[in-house]
Amino acid sequence: MNTPTKILLDESEMPTRWYNVVPDLPVPPPPQLHPGTLQPAQPEDFGPLFPQALIEQEMSTERYIDIPGEVLDVYRLWRPSPLFRAHRLEKILDTPARIYYKYEGVSPAGSHKPNTAVPQVYYNAREGIKKLTTETGAGQWGSSLAFACAQFGLECEVWQVAASYRAKPYRRTMMEVWGGRVHPSPSELTEFGRELLKQDPDHPGSLGIAISEAVSQAVASEDTRYALGSVLNHVLLHQTIIGEEALLQLAKVGETPDVLVGCTGGGSNFGGLAFPFLREKLAGRMNPTIRCVEPTACPTLTKGEFRYDFGDTAGLTPLMKMHTLGHSFIPEPIHAGGLRYHGMAPLVSHVYDLGLVEAIAIPQRECFAGALQFARSEGIVPAPEPTHAIAAAVREALACRESGEEKVILTALCGHGHLDLASYDQYLHGDMQDLELSDEAIAEAMKDVPVLA
Amino acid sequence: MNTPTKILLDESEMPTRWYNVVPDLPVPPPPQLHPGTLQPAQPEDFGPLFPQALIEQEMSTERYIDIPGEVLDVYRLWRPSPLFRAHRLEKILDTPARIYYKYEGVSPAGSHKPNTAVPQVYYNAREGIKKLTTETGAGQWGSSLAFACAQFGLECEVWQVAASYRAKPYRRTMMEVWGGRVHPSPSELTEFGRELLKQDPDHPGSLGIAISEAVSQAVASEDTRYALGSVLNHVLLHQTIIGEEALLQLAKVGETPDVLVGCTGGGSNFGGLAFPFLREKLAGRMNPTIRCVEPTACPTLTKGEFRYDFGDTAGLTPLMKMHTLGHSFIPEPIHAGGLRYHGMAPLVSHVYDLGLVEAIAIPQRECFAGALQFARSEGIVPAPEPTHAIAAAVREALACRESGEEKVILTALCGHGHLDLASYDQYLHGDMQDLELSDEAIAEAMKDVPVLA
User: Fold this and answer.
1) What's the CA angle centered on B106, arms B158 and B19, to 5 degrees?
2) Strand A98-103 relative to strand A83-85: parallel, antiparallel, unpaired?
3) Which of A133, A300, A371, B428 could form a disulfide bond with A344, CB atoms 3.0-4.6 angstroms apart?
4) Closest CA relative to residue B312, chosen from B411, B199, B448
5) Is B6 in contact with A6 (Cβ distance < 8 A)?
6) Closest CA–CA distance from residue A275 to any residue of chain B (Å)
7) What is the DSSP string of A267-334?
8) What are phi and psi for residue B187, nearest 5 degrees?
9) Angle between the A140-152 and A169-177 helix axes, to the nearest 10 degrees?
10) Whether A282 contacts chain B with CB within 8 A
11) Which CATH number fits domain A18-65+113-232: 3.30.1050.10, 3.40.50.1100, 3.40.50.1970, 1.10.10.10?
């Protein structure tokens, strides 16, 4: 094979529209519900949270939505992102498979998150919003939003899960470099935060709690809105530029994927990579196996239930039908691999429920073992999240070594691990444990999920 | 101007040879001297330190040297690197200047250092060497060498300046991810290290000391050699791929630089960017002003003396004629901007002495102020070292705003700052001080420099 190492696109070849999978699905996804009335949420219900343009995208049934020129201008700072052929990884795995990975770590924040942060800030700016609030865990989303806010002159206020705020001071600094203000969550700034701190002054926080705090601050102010980094339809929509570019890049080298694996936390990286390929599959133009990969420590798809639940811990968001471990679920602090959210994007949950995609869970030491093989061959040190995708790709490639099949494996390396090296330190020095979430723990967390008629 | 944001080259356009500036210089550079005989060093004097191929390159007067195919294979993991037009920085500076920056942070280690680490490891591997030793400060060089050793199956042992080893544990982890072994320097593993630790068990170390330790370990073992990340002729040679690519990229958009600014520590980033442009200038094909930028805290070119000195603190290396602050010089620990080496590449020193390039020193708060403007417009968070180049480019761009000149400014962003965010934290929270090295301090450090007849 004479495939180049990097398959590049010119800026002139960058896709100029996002893809919405909804109109192509055999069954429409269930609506979000108003948390008070339990009736399907109306556009105006989202008004205090999001600008009009994003609410329209959230509910859109249009197949394609144009990317505004101002957004394309910022995308060009790092997009189109490269697609790599993993020649050197294939060699050390001694596999006949051909492995391709789409690399999103080239963005300023080092992950795929700016793909949605930039349009979210742009639409807010266009509607006169002055400030955005958000939550962040390890900090990838918070730093992406801070970067995007710097581009359009908005203020950015971030509630960071307290455990990460303390353990990863450099992500906070990165947000501040881009002008963001960062608070540990739970914080003294919201009623919900104060309540939790009263119970436990050293509360480690969780994504669900941080969302509650950021949402409550946004709705309390006229010129402030909230931004979410994953889960919602419009977020997955913006991320489809990943898959659209990958399609063009694979076409350049005459390949179609046999297997596509992507890690799933909230689902935006996976949806972004997979949905354009799902479109091609549903249209009969290719037939890849499409597989979600999640941690055994937070097995939302493989062990969670598919039912209506809140997106946050305090129960402020609309109810979404999704695979969930319960909105009060907090993964073990020692789980280092990211992907810690209690739920899963409703769209990813829906296509999984329809049987259009598969899902597997992988324990974290296998993930970091794969990441080390990857780093020592391909060079890039992956973020903890995509170590799951790499481990799944390695499994596939080794199966091909057994079977002799020359499968084309596609995955997304959604970010680098430069700010997550503490996890590698744990792995290298033997302090990492595999975590399997027990059925009892899940049943316990599911107790708080509302039972709908 | 419709210049794209990123000017890319295909892998097929990547230069396949390095450029050696020596044969094009009007006066040949002074030879290195054997530290014992004080006579010009002979190839065999370097035998215990370097493989034959690198010794030949160190002394070569050939204008071009072919890049081996195995090296090109690894380069392709990130090369050709992008050249950016800084549209968004120009806008916030409101300048008619056109600013271009060559970005080397796309390499796995996040800097330009792998450009030389890869060929150095390759040539050692080809000559049967099993292990390389080296020194590192902040860790950019050590991690680059560890990455390169992983590619060719060599062991890598790194002495890291103790102050950095303690303050930056994640760089150590990064080296370990690639399979490197890291020791704080001074260490108990060498006689020189033990001596220094006897004087001060908390010795902060310095680059010069770490070089002495790494060199002494390399010469003590048959199948071990030493690798240096800057200063030497062959290192600058390998880095010229930066400037060669930039020439091709600027030609694609029909530009020639009026001003070229590059930060100088040991000189390899600067030489790599500047020497191909210096060739063009000497040949009369363009006429850019070429300017070195260094920190006021370590003003090797602007305040150091041009004379023979050792490359390391213990005096084990050949004597090199270079701009030096004295081989026992240790910059203030609170200087955060990198570029801390006591000397300057003999080739850079020589072209500066000949008046072919200029030099300025910039205090660190101006550098970080420029870096913040850069990060908030262009997105990328620069490493501390290239903040000097950015500050110099900003000075030029603002001068153009005054004069109305539409100058083309070229600089190299030699690395990202993801592992150096503590320096930004210092700057953002007001803990950063400007440092001006006094004449007395320089005179003191120069006392140990040998006086040659």
Assistant:
1) 80
2) antiparallel
3) A300
4) B448
5) no
6) 27
7) SHHHHHHHHHHHHHHHTTS---EEEEEEETTS-HHHHSEEEEEESSSSS-SPEEEEEES-TT----TT
8) -120, 165
9) 10
10) no
11) 3.40.50.1100
Q: What is the least distance, in Å, from the CA of A266 to any CA of chain B?
A: 25
Question: Which DSSP category does A447 fall into?
Answer: T
Neighbours of B58 (CB within 10 A): 17
- B375·A77 Cβ contact <8 A: no
A384-428 per-position pLDDT tens digit: 999 999 999 999 999 999 999 999 999 999 999 999 999 999 999
> What is the distance of C-alpha B45 from the center of its chain?
24
Q: Is B147 on the interface with A (CB under 8 A)?
A: yes
CATH 1.10.760.10 for domain B6-14+78-110+234-437: no
Closest CA to B132 of B172, B68, B175, B184: B175
Residues of B in contact with A179 (CB under 8 A): 376
Q: What is the pLDDT along chain B (453 residues), one digit of tens a residue?
A: 489 999 999 999 999 999 999 999 999 999 999 988 999 999 999 999 999 999 999 999 999 999 999 999 999 999 999 999 999 999 999 999 999 999 999 999 999 999 999 999 999 999 999 999 999 988 999 999 999 999 999 999 999 999 999 988 899 999 999 999 999 999 999 999 999 999 999 999 988 899 999 999 999 999 999 999 999 999 999 999 999 999 999 999 999 999 999 999 999 999 999 999 999 999 999 999 999 999 999 999 999 999 999 998 888 889 999 999 999 888 777 777 778 889 999 999 999 999 999 999 999 999 999 999 999 999 999 999 999 999 999 999 999 999 999 999 999 999 999 999 999 999 999 888 898 888 898 898 899 898 886
* Domain span(s) for CATH 3.40.50.1100 in chain B: 6-14+78-110+234-437, 18-65+113-232
Please state, as a whole number, how many other Cβ atoms lie within 10 Å of the Cβ of residue B282.
Answer: 14
Chain B residues whose beta carbon lies within 8 Å of the beta carbon of residue A424? 173-174, 176-177
Query: Phi and psi of A19, rounded to 5°?
Result: -110, 130
Whether chain A has a CB inside 8 Å of the CB on B380: the answer is yes
Instruction: Collect all residues with Cβ–Cβ distance below 8 Å to A272 and sequence separation of at least 6.
Output: A112, A115, A236, A238, A239, A240, A241, A242, A243, A412
Quote the CA–CA distance of B449 and B258 in Å, as a whole number: 38
Q: What is the DSSP letter of A133?
A: E
Residues of A in contact with B174 (CB under 8 A): 381, 418, 421, 424
pTM summary value: 0.96
Q: What is the three-state SS of B34-77?
A: CCCCCCECCHHHHCCCCCHHHHHHHHCCCCEEECCHHHHHHHCC
Q: Which helix (H) or strand (E) holds A337?
A: none
Residue type, A339: L
Residue of A nearest to B91 (CA): A151
List pLDDT tens digits, range B236-255: 999 999 999 999 999 999 99
B167 contacts chain A (CB < 8 A): no
Phi/psi class of residue A395: alpha, beta or left (left: φ > 0; alpha: ψ in -120 to 50)?
Answer: alpha
- Can you tell me which residue has the tokens 């949605």? A116
- Residue pair B197/B186 in contact (Cβ under 8 Å)? The answer is yes
